[in-house]
Design brief:
alpha/beta; 390 residues; 16 helices; Rossmann fold; globular
Amino acid sequence: MRRFSSYGPVDKKNHFTVPRKALVKACMESLIGDPEEGGHYFTIWAPRQTGKTWLMQQVIREMESLCRDRYIIAKMSCQGIIIEPDMPEDTFLGKIPRLMLDGFDMDVDAPETWEEWLLFFHKRKGLFQKPLILFIDEFDSLPPGVIDRIVTLFRDVYLNRHDFHIHGLALIGVRAVLGVESDRGSPFNIQRSLHVPNFTLEEVTELFRQYESESEQIIEAEVVRQVFETTLGQPGLVGWFGELLTETYNPGAPNPIDLPVWEDVYEAACFREWNNTILNLIKKARGPYVRYVLDLFEKPDIPFSIHAEWCNYLYLNGIIGEEIQADRTGRKRYVCRFSSPFVQTCLFHALTHDLVGERFPILVIEPLDTLDEVFDKPELEVVVVAIGWG
């Protein structure tokens, strides 16, 4: 039987998946563009564990089945390329033989200059006889100076694209949308950048429907809704809660996975179970913009702006999102919100232990307490309020 997966790309043979056909199609169309004139150079970006690499794999698989005769379709991954800050930018040139071997199954010598690497893709002097569709994964893991060099080279290719075989190019990463802005100009149209969105409620429901069908174990609809509302569909977290519900804390068939099981799982997820995505978010939140994270717990109307460095850092790394809010005059504006209630809860408890206690008074109620025991009754529960606030 297949299972949920919370780490690394999923595959439909071993894991529950949703096809996301519209997203795959949009990516393909951007890469192909005008079959005669050339496709687009653009970025695919999203926080960790949201399906960037999965999307790349699906597009490659689809294009190989439809366009193999017309294009060479390949991917390179910069993951594992180690270039220390004190190393010269030309160190990257020594990594190119491995990239070419992994991406094209070609054994080449390291180019001596950046221009020599560019000639690999030249129509008259290069290594290829057909147009290329190229993906570069984990692009923003490279040092800024190396990124700037590569973007400058691709700008030259883009401006002289009739001389080169790179038809379409996608750079993939968490901050790739920003990492392509070179002082010397960029061929990457930031407006065309493709953001990998969270799952919809329908997609989350479909994942659990597949589990029910294969396991013959019932999952209550309210549990599925809780998974979505808690994570807002963040793919890695949806997969993780799927693992916890159907494996770690599964009561076993014929018992259903119901709300009491969900409550146990949620408590464990907040305080007992390790999760790489949450650990990464906590680390980022404790970084240079921690005071802004703390402010989000106090102020519900902090303006959201991608032009503020702190804001786009927290946004691109999956700590915050945005929401449209109307003021008293009806004027609408964007304000900051945590990326999901679960992320907010985890950050609150993590930061409380080492930072928040020095800034906030002791709170009467938990910030995320919905006060259901007060308001979900025909009359106001004054005694409950008095006990809780007294």
